[in-house]
Amino acid sequence: MSEKNYKKILLKISGEALLGSQQFGIDPVPVSSICREIKKAYDKGVQIAVVVGGGNIFRGMQSSSKLGMDQASGDYVGMLATVMNAIALQSELRKIGVDCRVQSAINMEKIAEPYIRFRAIRHLEKKRVVIFAAGTGNPFFTTDTAAALRAAEIGADIMLMAKNGVDGVYSADPRVDKNAKKYDKISYDDIIVNGLKVMDLTSCALCKQNNIPIIVFDFNLKDSILKVLEGQNVGTIVE
Q1: pLDDT in tens, 83-109
Q2: Could you tell me which residues come within 8 angstroms of residue 204 by beta carbon, excluding any fewer than 6 positions away?
Q3: φ, ψ for residue 143, nearest 5 deg
Q4: DSSP alpha helix (H) spans, 132-172
Q5: Which of 27, 42, 203, 212 could cross-link to 148 by cystine, CB 3.0-4.6 Å?
Q6: Beta-carbon count within 10 A of 124 CB
Q7: What is the pLDDT confidence band of residue 62, given thresholds at 50, 70 and 90?
Q8: What pLDDT, in 10s, does the model give residues 132-150?
């Protein structure tokens, strides 16, 4: 085990990680836990950017209200959900002494900065956590793809994909198939060719194109980000 030279990381958090014990919405308990984990890495001087999903809000609303939207409209609602999650994370991070900014791919200047690449990079250089919200700002692209895109734009050394209750990449869904095999290491091509559902295939291809390694891990593991930075074998590495 050796200290990894990751100076800049992109952390992708699923919206479901903010659910806690609720069916939908934002639970303050996991929000607080996630922010404490981010602060541990922040205190080590690592530049941290975050992309958060919105499934905890939109999917719950979709199933209860049966909105029946077309995909583009639904994707825009999902983008707005990510902004809500980003603001919740920002509030908690500031509460525990972490300077941070939210940048949105959809302009809403009253509550977030517009996404500007060089401004985001400057925030990171000034030791501010940057939370990217509203995905790419376009429908038909997932927040996984937004995370890979932002990681490439800011020159991240690695992308960390925090999963809720799944500790890596498996040959099948381990919650369904008890015989699913966990991989300690896997290539981008294996994920793409085998259609593994751990991430959006577009995001995987984008990381391959830009030589950005990915670590898929369970965020419920205590000190998970620190363990990655220390070079411990956490989750699955994709490269």
Answers
A1: 999 999 999 999 999 999 999 999 999
A2: 148, 188, 191, 192, 214, 238
A3: -70, -20
A4: 143-154
A5: 203
A6: 21
A7: low
A8: 999 999 999 999 999 999 9
- The token pair at 121 is 């990079």
> How far is 90 from 101, CA to CA, in rounded Å?
7
For the domain made up of 8-238, give the CATH fold. Answer: Carbamate kinase (3.40.1160)
State the Rg of the chain over Cα. 17
Please name which of 46, 47, 20 lies closest in space to residue 31, comparing C-alpha atoms. Answer: 20
Closest among 121, 130, 182 to 153, alpha carbons compared: 121
Q: Measured between alpha carbons, how far is 149 from 207 in angstroms, rounded to an integer? A: 8
Q: What is the pTM of this model?
A: 0.93
The one-letter code for the residue type at 75 is: D
Q: Any idea how long the chain is? A: 239
pLDDT at 119 over 70: yes
CA distance 118 to 73: 30
| Residue range 196-208, pLDDT digits in tens | 888 899 999 999 9
Contact indicator for 120, 154 with CB cutoff of 8 Å: yes
Outline where 66-187 has alpha helix (H): 71-95, 117-125, 143-154
The terminus-to-terminus CA distance of the chain in angstroms comes to 19
Residue 86, token pair as written in the block: 């980003």
- SS3 call for 192: helix
pLDDT digit string, tens, across residues 3-56? 678 999 999 999 988 988 888 899 999 999 999 999 999 999 999 999 999 988
Token pair for 192: 């793409």
Nearest-angstrom CA–CA distance, 183 and 156 = 24
C-alpha to C-alpha distance for 27 and 19, rounded to whole angstroms: 5
